Amino acid sequence: MENQGRNGKRLVLVPGPFQGHLTPMLQLATVLKSKGFSITIAHTQFNSPDSSAHPDFTFLCIPDGLSEEEVRNPDLIGIVLRLNVNCESSFRECLNQGTNHMESGDKICCIIYDAIVYFSEAVARDLKIPSIALHTSNAATTIVRPILLQLKAQGHIPVPDSMLQVPVPLHQPLRFKDLPLSNFGSLDYFLEGIVLMYNIGSSSAIIFNTIHCLEEPPLAQLHQRYQVPIFPIGPLHKLAPTSDVSLLQEDTGCITWLDKQTHNSVIYVSLGSIAHLNQDQLSEMAWGLANSKEPFLWVIRPGSILGSEWIDSMDEGFKECVKDRGCIVKWAPQKKVLAHDAVGGFWSHCGWNSTLESICEGVPMICQPCFGDQKVNARYLTHEWKVGLELEGEIERGTVERAVRTLMKEKEGEEMRQRVLDLKHKVEVSIGDGGYSSHYLSELVELLTSL
Ligand code: UDX
């Protein structure tokens, strides 16, 4: 039986059902549990987390009504919109049943929900329970997303080729090509989703998995836009280092492989949990890595290569060429990989979690954003914090080879390494006593205690 929490106060946390969303919400749950709250994780059936890995939490499964076919559909925006329609009444019912099973004296004092599962806010409002939104992407994306509607009305979206390099007025360092548009489904659905996602309704506050020292200007703009407290309490993975929630099986053999490599010699390559590659892109990445002659650890997610199960279609010549200095796995313990002494660079799609994890380990990056907030993150990495190299245009082996060499061997890469080590230090200060993230976390706990 779970211990009675902070004065019997229970928080219900509702994660978004994707790896990059489940992870920060479960980390937040771990942090709040350590502050004495009782925790219920209310999750969709689709991509449900492994409850046995979190014996301290109570889990409630929300029937989401998604069919097998819908779950397999790559249109993620469609899935999100449908979930929000399907889950509102089932969540309400679930919460009522869950409440019946709670210990007497236990009170739900707040529903903390991922902004993409905004049905939670509607339920909280109906049941007169306070709510708080969690944004799992950065502040800069949250600032710029709502202007997409305006830009669409002005005819700037879809972005014409002639505008790609043009700076977005009032949103430097972003260019039109960096706007956080989606690759999935229809543009109209995506914009409809944005309106719903960024309307916090009656929520009392917004939590961000970001850090004051990385995003001071966009955070200041957020304070102006929303009339509620903003809590940038990241990086959550450093506040809750033990809270892992991998939907895929991690291959720990790659750590044994890294143990045999020399200091800062390996480039780690991963495009996260959603992005896909076609056969040509796979081949150009592979030969760029091979020709760079640098050791690499490459995560290729099963199903992420269009038209093949895994690396079955990969050129045998490439496999032979890199057999002594390449390691390819299906899924890695990424945080351990980035913290490993042998890893000197990260070629990434720049998902926000990967971006934070890389900065926190002082690893400079090659930035290959695929869609959405990744483009904003990549622009900040390359042009604001200057800790990443931009890989522009179609993936091509010559460009890849040069980028890998520059990052791993040249002065430009070394300068980025120094800058990212400085950022790492600033982040450590932020989560230490008296730092910004610690301060905002205390304020958040105070607010939750007062509800
Ligand atoms: C998605 C979006 O794509 C991203 O842009 C948004 O910021 C969050 O949601 P995803 O593409 O999965 O996320 O990227 P990211 O945010 O980087 O999250 C991936 C997570 O999976 C990271 O925490 C990373 O450590 C983990 N991971 C990735 C592994 O544990 N092993 C791997 O092999 C690869």
UniProtKB/TrEMBL annotation:
One of its GO terms (molecular function) is quercetin 3-O-glucosyltransferase activity. Keywords: Glycosyltransferase, Transferase. GO terms for cellular component: cytoplasm. The keyword Heme does not apply. InterPro entries: UDP_glucos_trans. It holds the Pfam family UDPGT. SUPFAM superfamilies: UDP-Glycosyltransferase/glycogen phosphorylase. Belongs to the UDP-glycosyltransferase family. PANTHER family: FLAVONOL 3-O-GLUCOSYLTRANSFERASE UGT76E12-RELATED (PTHR11926:SF1494), GLUCOSYL/GLUCURONOSYL TRANSFERASES (PTHR11926). This is Glycosyltransferase.
